[in-house]
């Protein structure tokens, strides 16, 4: 039996201190709001560090009617662990117990106690029942990182939330309070690292003035348990080092990186390490010198290893010159290197083998590199799922990938068990609401929660988020969570159903453009992926086609090799089928395709109606912004449907299924739409 | 005898509705804060328009303990003027009278009543004594515009406050509440027009999708009395019209512009007109076809005239190929065109003949185009005065220019009397504090106040701003106003004293670089302006030099022709003098130069001390941000001083004056500093 925590009062005590009227609401406070309840809490140790002071302040703000005290008995004095050793609690874990006077938080480290603090606040906010014998938790994964794709000119690649929050010009002298608010938000969901710069890297960040700026940010994040990482431009030895080469096997090059690492660690003793995109989409890398990814990664790894640093080397590779099916190439390039990476290297693998589409099968690399530490890279920013405006909760997408069974060691070889952590491409920018829209915040939140526990239930996470962010009105919560849980599939339905993929506009990736077939590289065109002709559509990835299925273990390889045993949601990913192919419900592929589009649009309409019914149950400002964005989403969902249908019809020559509405415009109109200033490009 | 308005209570009622804690403060609310006082106010007409409803809401928020009512007697019914005719009150003027029950606001138009409303609120905020027989006011100038140098990709040229606030991607469907807050802020200081786009124009804004977005913004601004203007890319007929030429005398081109204007006015019936930069710094223009500025302006003027629109044609021209002294060229090019412009064209002239330097003499065009309507263009964003961080109140700079006597028609031919209005290059962006720093807001405010009344006293404006923005503690107000009033001269002192000019870093214009002498164009180099040699420094603009003095009327031409009668603050602008030239206080030029630098740095130190003494008198958040920025300003003031001295010494070989501190680094160090990501470039 549990005990309901705290008092869920209507008083809103604000944790983020910024100006404005007490009645208005712009989402700046994210999910960190207080219930005004009361709970007495004991934190470890009466000589509080900066971290424990933060913990106390969080509790005082969140539960202002209670008291916070520090336990004198748990300080062991200078030089010895200040906190009692907990057997089942790792370095970042905590225990929340109850005694007659309230709650007692203990942990192995101050940051663990801080995590326990946020956990307790969450429990109070959501009205969670606390087990009688308390709560002991620790993160399942040690690396829980955000990856910002922020350029030094403050443009955010694939960013739809304003500019980069890093104000390089004013750093290191001016520390914007927003950096602290950022750290708090992340710590509250267990994020423990951030890579500050775009994977399309700029060596300038490794120059002395910028190292000083980065060190200033690291100082803000440190008490929140957040380490700083940087992207390493592989050609930096040439660009800023004055060397003639960046060959990782060149002694001068290795020495340069070693000295650079030493320089960084002198300024930032707990610097996390480097994230690298190499020999991908034009980025420099070891292959420029006939070396392997392992050669490159290991050279960098040796430079940071003495300092405890790591190297995260991205496996997002595909070459226009390589004739192999794009989605096979990363496997082809990396599997031979399994076991060849140094211990402090992790290979960072996108959830799917293509590129963050609304649905992809999991990447076969997760089942094929047993000797190499891996990270799963997820995309929080909605590059392919409607930018900031479309409401699309990605918890289900990520959970689908993380709980996928690779069958690498027989059954129950989940992707989640194969990785040492998660990296999330951030959706954060200078917009007042951080993420471009209110509901985009939910994806940031869910990412943190899944990084902590990749097997957590996305619906439970959504429920927590809604309660922490909007309301604890039970019916409202149910309705909002319902919208969220159906929203990912809605996007799949109106953009890329039935295993279709990569049909977006060129460059900016905004809106539909399935007709594009004439870019510099075939593997950048939508046509490459759907290959639609008068008779058929889809990419044959079976043994008779590109044989991408063989990169998966049995029974998946066999299941996906046959249309009959392929889940319909991946049909056109793995198979090429005629337009009149009969799908599971007895309709034709064409009829089903149009039905999916209509279902997607209908789901957005339903979301709008549900949301309209919530007016008055949440604050007017966030209600209105979300209502406006849902209207945009409906307009764009129709656009995706109509443009796609117009195109498919121009290829297959088929009439619309009975009762289906024709596209609003003709294909030429859709092709003529141009968006020179769509954001994030 | 006046009567003190309202009650200056300590309760802060916030007018801008955005989320946050009631205790914290980020400057978002600008100068629109309430005193919680009470005053009963009567507005015109009981069938309130949107504008009058806004006025009532402003009063209710600002003076919540009073009541607001509408006067039933002043509505005259459909179709006839709804408000009583006021003899001494123009279309935008108002009268604030007092009766037994409070205040009565009347006006010729609803917008006039809105201006009266803000005027009353200001009076209450600042504790102003209202004359017994009330207040009747109207703007001295009809055109009071902001010019945003915002690009469609949201980069703001010379912007140090984040991105462009115009979210083109979400327009027209989503109207960010910030647009309304922007409109309120501007209406409160009498701004009645905004040019949305960069003068380095992009024809895309004239395409149908963007016209729709612009119309949406115009709809937000309209009830606040603010018209929208756009910059017209002169080559638009080619770029978006498909024509072969943009020759203004070509019939097809004129027809294209006419149709384009008609299209814009169909969407925006009160569109203001076009702002044009042509044949300047690479922009296309009529001279590309052997036509004059008047040819180009008049063609556009004819296109907008039927709709009541205007054309503002910038006189910021200078050519690298033209050997004449850069500061003479605008006069040379435009004076022959005096009287040749259509009635609805205004020539827009920067305050000085160079480019917004900390100090310049006024532009001779103000005294030389008597037959042409003129606008004065001022720069609110501090491109040359320290970006957003340096505290530099520009009221004195603008007043100096506006109250300068051109002597065009004998004495008292002030610049202010020669112009039909003011255009201010905005310092507004997505930063939470709008303008990049708290004190940068003061320049936006002062611009509006001077556009309304160009002869207003900058100190009185500063006093109002401080009282409306920070505090009404008399001592604190005095100290802050004192800082502000000395701050412009401080920047002159540490950057460009004694008439020196244009010594900033290349491209980004950040920091000092007086040594630069080797760019693509000589007139872009600092060296062009100071011409320092071992023996002398300064630009001879007298009759024996470039004779720029002759572009001014007597007695100025003669006064500035002689060193003895030239104000020391313009010495090196007009004269070339030896380093040992004796200045007015008996010291040498060199000694005086170093003394000015030291005085500038000392003034910043003094500002820091003054500010430190204000801790506790204003809110902690804005106090802290300003303190941090003042520290940056001191660091940069020293840098300007030290780098400049190091350079001058390398040229003149002179020892430092007795007691002067040597530069911290050597010249090579200063030359090596590089800022690839300085903002606004």
Automatic annotation (TrEMBL), chains A, B:
<dbReference type="InterPro" id="IPR017853">
    <property type="entry name" value="GH"/>
</dbReference>
<dbReference type="InterPro" id="IPR011099">
    <property type="entry name" value="Glyco_hydro_67_C"/>
</dbReference>
<keyword id="KW-0119">Carbohydrate metabolism</keyword>
<feature type="active site" description="Proton donor">
    <location>
        <position position="281"/>
    </location>
</feature>
<dbReference type="InterPro" id="IPR011100">
    <property type="entry name" value="Glyco_hydro_67_cat"/>
</dbReference>
<dbReference type="GO" id="GO:0005576">
    <property type="term" value="C:extracellular region"/>
</dbReference>
<dbReference type="InterPro" id="IPR037054">
    <property type="entry name" value="A-glucoronidase_C_sf"/>
</dbReference>
<feature type="active site" description="Proton acceptor">
    <location>
        <position position="355"/>
    </location>
</feature>
<feature type="domain" description="Glycosyl hydrolase family 67 catalytic">
    <location>
        <begin position="127"/>
        <end position="434"/>
    </location>
</feature>
<dbReference type="Pfam" id="PF07488">
    <property type="entry name" value="Glyco_hydro_67M"/>
</dbReference>
<dbReference type="InterPro" id="IPR011395">
    <property type="entry name" value="Glyco_hydro_67_aGlcAse"/>
</dbReference>
<keyword id="KW-0858">Xylan degradation</keyword>
<dbReference type="InterPro" id="IPR029018">
    <property type="entry name" value="Hex-like_dom2"/>
</dbReference>
<dbReference type="GO" id="GO:0033939">
    <property type="term" value="F:xylan alpha-1,2-glucuronosidase activity"/>
</dbReference>
<dbReference type="GO" id="GO:0045493">
    <property type="term" value="P:xylan catabolic process"/>
</dbReference>
<keyword id="KW-0624">Polysaccharide degradation</keyword>
<comment type="similarity">
    <text>Belongs to the glycosyl hydrolase 67 family.</text>
</comment>
<dbReference type="GO" id="GO:0046559">
    <property type="term" value="F:alpha-glucuronidase activity"/>
</dbReference>
<feature type="domain" description="Glycosyl hydrolase family 67 C-terminal">
    <location>
        <begin position="436"/>
        <end position="659"/>
    </location>
</feature>
<protein>
    <submittedName>
        <fullName>Alpha-glucuronidase</fullName>
        <ecNumber>3.2.1.139</ecNumber>
    </submittedName>
</protein>
<keyword id="KW-0326">Glycosidase</keyword>
<keyword id="KW-0378">Hydrolase</keyword>
<dbReference type="Pfam" id="PF07477">
    <property type="entry name" value="Glyco_hydro_67C"/>
</dbReference>
<feature type="active site" description="Proton acceptor">
    <location>
        <position position="383"/>
    </location>
</feature>
